[in-house]
User: Which sequence fits this backbone?
C-alpha cells in the first residue's frame, strides 16, 4: 500500500509501512493514492484520524476523482462515497467513469498475472497536477468547511481537461437508544424532503422507501434518497401502510443503473404530532429484517422535532 501523509508544512511524507502501526497524530491531512479497497476500508473504519483526501483514476486515466473530508470530519469517506454513487443516477459522465471496466491482466513470471489498469504517464501527471493544486488551496484555506468531490474529465478529441467540484451535503448520524452494530447516516437534504412530505399530508401519517449505500467494513448505512409511497399506500391519522405497486420495479431500476451501489435500505414514515415507535412499528421492523435475511435494514420515524430509528 502507499499512503501519503501531509504534515504541517507543504511537503508530502510517503509511508511505506503497515498503515495500522503509523502514528498519524502529527499529520495535518492524510492523502490516499493507493487505489486499494483494503486501504479505503481501513480509512473508513478509523475514527481518530486527520481529515482524509482519497484520490483515484478511472477508465484508463480519462477520469479522476478526489474525495475530500471537511476539517472537522463531519462528513467522512462513507458518506462522501455514498453521495458520489448517488450522483451516478443523474450524471452519465460520473456513471461512465466509475462503472466502466478497463482492467488488464499483466503476466508476472510463469502462469501468474496481476490485474491492473494501464494509464499513460502524461494523463497521470495531468490529473495529479490538478489535484495537487486543489490540495494546496485546501491547505492555504486551513482545510475545508464542507466535504467536496473533485471530478476531472479528459476529452480525447479536444485534448482538454474539464474539472467540476461538487459540495457534499451534510449527513447526520441518526442515534438510537438501542445498541446497534451499524451506524446510520441520512443527508440533510433527505431529512428536509421527508419533513416537507410529512407537512403536506397532515393530519395523516405518510412515508416511503429509503435508498442508499451499505459499507460492510465500517458497518455504515448511508441514506441518500427516498422513493415516494406507491399509489396503493394507506395514509391515515394514526397509521401508515406502505404500498407495493411499482415499488420493486423502481428499486430494481436504481440498482441496475448504479451497479448495486445504491440499493433499498428500508422504510420511513411520519408521526406528525410527535410520538415514539409504536409496538406495531417495532413488529414491522422485525418482520422486514426477517424477509431481508437480516441484511442491514433500517426503519425511520420522523416528526417535527427529530428523526429516530425504530
Assistant:
Amino acid at each position: 500500500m502507499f499512503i501519503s501523509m501531509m504534515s504541517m508544512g507543504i511537503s508530502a511524507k510517503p509511508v511505506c509501512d503497515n498503515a495500522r502501526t503509523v502514528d498519524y497524530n502529527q499529520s495535518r491531512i492524510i492523502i490516499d493514492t493507493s487505489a486499494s479497497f483494503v486501504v479505503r476500508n481501513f480509512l473508513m473504519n478509523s475514527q481518530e484520524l486527520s481529515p482524509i483526501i482519497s484520490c483515484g483514476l478511472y477508465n484508463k486515466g480519462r477520469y479522476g476523482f478526489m474525495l475530500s473530508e471537511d476539517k472537522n470530519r463531519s462528513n467522512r469517506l462513507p458518506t462522501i462515497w455514498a453521495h458520489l454513487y448517488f450522483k451516478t443516477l443523474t450524471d452519465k459522465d460520473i456513471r461512465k467513469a466509475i462503472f466502466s471496466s478497463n482492467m488488464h491482466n499483466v503476466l508476472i513470471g510463469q502462469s501468474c498475472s496481476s490485474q491492473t489498469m494501464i494509464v499513460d504517464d502524461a494523463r497521470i501527471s495531468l490529473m495529479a497536477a490538478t489535484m495537487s493544486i486543489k490540495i494546496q488551496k485546501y491547505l492555504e484555506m486551513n482545510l475545508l468547511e464542507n466535504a467536496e468531490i473533485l471530478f476531472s474529465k479528459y476529452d480525447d478529441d479536444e485534448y482538454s481537461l474539464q474539472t467540476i467540484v461538487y459540495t457534499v451535503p451534510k449527513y447526520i448520524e441518526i442515534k438510537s437508544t438501542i445498541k446497534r452494530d451499524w451506524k446510520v447516516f441520512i443527508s440533510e437534504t433527505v431529512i428536509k424532503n421527508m419533513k416537507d412530505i410529512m407537512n403536506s399530508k397532515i393530519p395523516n401519517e405518510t412515508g416511503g422507501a429509503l435508498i442508499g449505500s451499505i459499507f460492510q467494513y465500517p458497518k455504515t448505512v448511508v441514506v441518500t434518497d427516498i422513493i415516494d409511497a406507491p399509489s396503493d399506500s394507506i395514509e391515515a391519522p394514526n397509521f401508515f401502510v406502505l404500498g407495493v405497486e411499482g415499488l420493486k420495479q423502481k428499486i430494481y431500476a436504481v440498482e441496475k443503473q448504479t451497479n448495486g451501489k445504491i440499493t433499498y435500505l428500508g422504510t420511513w414514515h411520519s408521526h406528525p404530532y410527535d410520538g415514539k415507535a409504536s409496538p406495531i412499528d417495532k413488529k414491522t421492523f422485525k418482520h422486514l429484517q426477517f424477509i431481508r435475511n437480516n441484511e442491514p435494514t433500517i426503519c425511520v420515524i420522523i416528526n417535527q422535532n427529530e428523526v429516530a430509528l425504530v
Q: What stands out?
A: The mean pLDDT is 87. The longest strand covers residues 207-215. The first helix runs from residue 37 to 45. The chain has two domains: 3-167, 171-309.
